[in-house]
Design brief:
mainly alpha
Amino acid sequence: MGNYRTKMRQLGRPDVTVNSGKRGKPNADGEPPDKNIKKPKKGEVNFLPEFPNGMDVAGLEAVRVAIVNEMQKRNPNDSLIRNNMDISFALRREEVVKKMPDISQMTQRWPALFTESQVYLEFNRIVGRNLKEEFYGVLDGLCPSLMELFKRKPGRIGKQLAELLQQRKSTEPTVVRCLALRGLAVIL
């Protein structure tokens, strides 16, 4: 695998060159070897896809501006935003990994990224999993133990949790999930 990564770095593949220069050689920007190395942590992905065929930075910037203009409308076109966000994914990842902008800059440059549907889609683009299904799956697995914890909690917080448990009218998954999330807000 080491030789493969070396050859890919020499070819200039962005997903490999982002971590170049760890062992003493200056990286492509001339910075010292240990400066600004992005070490992947659990849940972090240093994925830098290549730009779509026929697109360059200027073309992707025009797509980004179209997204910003569409988001300023009262009723933005969801399918247009979804398609443009798919196209501009490589530019967005490059900004996040290399420039590390603040959240305020990201909200100005990519306002669609902070809508509920785009949060789910961006998670799927990066990690390759469905965020909503995974979250609800884990929450469903934890709900029985959370309900037991809510019943055993003493004191003022225990009284609030007991009131919440009395509001439970059915065993539908949606009702149980809502109850678990409300109870967590009380505990935390």
